Structures are given as structure tokens and as C-alpha cells.
Amino acid sequence: MARSAAPDSSPRRVAVVGAGMIGLSTAWFLQEFGVEVTVYERGPVAAGASWGNAGWLTPGLATPLPEPAVLKYGLRAAFSPSSPVYVPPSADPRLLRFLAGFVRHSTAGRWQRAMDALVPINRRALAGFDALAAGGVEARTVEAGAFLAAYRGVGERRVLVEEIEHIHGAGQKLEYDLLSGDEARALVPVLSGEVGAAVRLRGQRFLDPGRFVFALADSVRGRGGDIRTGTAVTDVRDRARGVGVLAAGSAPEPYDAVVLAGGAWLGDLGRSFGVRAVVQAGRGYSFSVPVEHLPADPLYFPAQRVACTPLGERLRVAGTMEFRKPGAPLDRRRIRAIVEAARPMLRGADLEARQDEWVGSRPCTPDGLPLIGATRSPRVFAAGGHGMWGMTLGPATGQLLAEAIVTGRRPAELGPFDPLR
Q: For 44, which of 210, 226, 345, 375 is 20 to 30 Å away at the CA?
């Protein structure tokens, strides 16, 4: 891919805080404009929500997290450690503020408005991955031929079918087929006899998230980018001569612009630049297990909130939404909850032979929309708050934000995601 020249007045040297999918995608697309990039990461590459997630590239399912089902489900159930959505009883004031906003946005009308906002960027999601591949990022995405959402019966399945119709109503394309349990098992033998109905989704992809993000980091480095792992940014200061980035143990370093893409930690640096939305860690868990018949494509058990993806010779099993501080230790009760939810739906899966048990913090916002664009400072930009869709929307976010930073013009797709809203 040929690089474009940046306008004379655009930033020449940009710092990106965060080396996950969002931050590295933004850095890579800034390099397409000839911008010099330095990426800061408090841990290793892909240390946040990027490494152990399900690896789904499903723009057809990228919908707002606050939804009417939350009100129907009830917050009382969310205080049980075995619940798919878990809120620890010792919730702090910041978390309570997030939950109040989340519930306020969990209405049909607000869901539809948020869905309308997501459709334009969802349409660009897979093309963003194609641009990375064309530019030499050496990691592949896989077309999912039989991406199945499986249910115990037709009644359970009706919830997804109705949601797909709402997605269609917002102008987003999503092709699907309705299958019986026997038809689903004929395609995917790992499904148990408990499965009585399924939806086959078309036009979706998946990837190995850790491998992809590492390859993206390698590409950024190979094009001259500097990635500083184990380097936590403690402060960002907008000064007359540039934006100063303060990292632990070092003097302030000046840049023309800074991108805050630190995932669940975005709000810590963003507040001083007018980012008022709470960015709450919605922690997801995963592990991998051996199965007798490894499926070729992902599986989803929506009623159980469990996602399964074939990676290598094992099945990654992921799930739960745990609203807790991002640095809290792994809660083994959440692993057991996923195991017990998945057990009845899978056949030939050794759920006791778990490896790679992991927890990562998805950055969630109360209205379910990401924060992408300029902050109160025209030289400090936010890029985060994608919830469950950071992997899917990472390249499109980076592509659009890089364009905004270099040209000074905000693409229309980013309009609803103003970090100052």
C-alpha cells in the first residue's frame, strides 16, 4: 500500500498510549501517512483485552452492550458469582455511576439510536483488516463458513432472530439461516443433544487474537515505529511546544499529538482533557480445552453467554462480563461458571483439561459507544471504550482516527463517538 504524504500542518511525531488492537491499529495507519510513532504499553503487547478474547470479527453482531434484556434480566442476578454478568457486592462509587448510566441506556429507543451510530463503522470493519493484510501485516483472518449460534430450543432462539431484525432495521446487513438441532450437529458434531435450534451467520470472520496483535506490533516496528513495553504513562501534559508524555522513571518527552488508547485505563488520563464518560472494565475470561471433533468455525451459546473459537488444535472457551477493577486477580468462580454453562452444550470436550486460563478487561462505556476523536485539546485524542467489539472495530477505528489526526477533518463515521459527549 502506498503511503500518503501528510499535510504540512499535521503532526509529524505522535505518541500512542496502549499496545492493544486499537492502539497498534492507530499507530499503523498513522505510519501510512508518514507519521513517526512511539507506542507506550504498561505491560507486554496485547496485555489488556486483546490476547485471550474469542477472536471474533463479527461486524454483523457488533451491537450496543446496554440493551433492554438487561432490564428484563435484572440487576439482582448480576450479584451472583455464577451469573454471566457479575457485579461484585463491594462496588465503588465510580462503578455505581457506570451502572446507573448503563441501566439508563438499556431501553429499546436508546439501543436503536446507538445501533444507528455503529452501523457506518461496522460496515468498514472487515475492509480495515484487508488494508492491514495488503500493507504487509503477516497474520491471517479466517472466513467463517458455519458460524453457529446454538440454543436449546426455538423459544430461546427467538431473542437473536428479533435482534437481527432490529439490526436490519438499522440498515446493517447480516445474512443468516435457521437450523434445527440435527442440522446444526451435522455441521458441527461437537454440539450435544441439548441443542435443539441454531442460527447460522454468514459473512463473518475470526482470528487468533494474540498472534494477530503480535504480528501487527511487528509490522509497526518494521516500519520504524518504537514500541516501549513495560512503560506505564503516568501523565500527559498539553504545553505550548507540544504534548508532554510522562512515563514512569523518565523525563517528559514532547510529541505533536498523543492518542489515549489504554483500554480500561483510558479514563485515568482522559479526565484532565474533558473525557467525562466512565470507562469501566468489563472483564472477560477464557481458557482452552481439547475436543474430540474440533469445529472449523466459532460457536456461540447466547443464552449461556459463552463463545467458542477453534485456535490451533484446541477450543478456546470464553465468556462472562465482570464489572471489576482491571487489575483485580482472576476469580476462579468465573471460570467455573463458564465451565458449567458450556458443559451441557458441548460433546467430547474435556473441560477439566483447561489451559491458558485468562482474564482481560474490556473497556466499556455507559451508552455502549466507543470514544474516538479529539478531546478538549486538539492535540490529544481518545481511542477506546469499544466494549466487546475492540477486536472487530480496531482497524477501522485506527484508519478513521489516523485520517482525523493527520487531516484535521473528522470522518462522518466518528461523529457519534465524540469523547466529550
A: 375
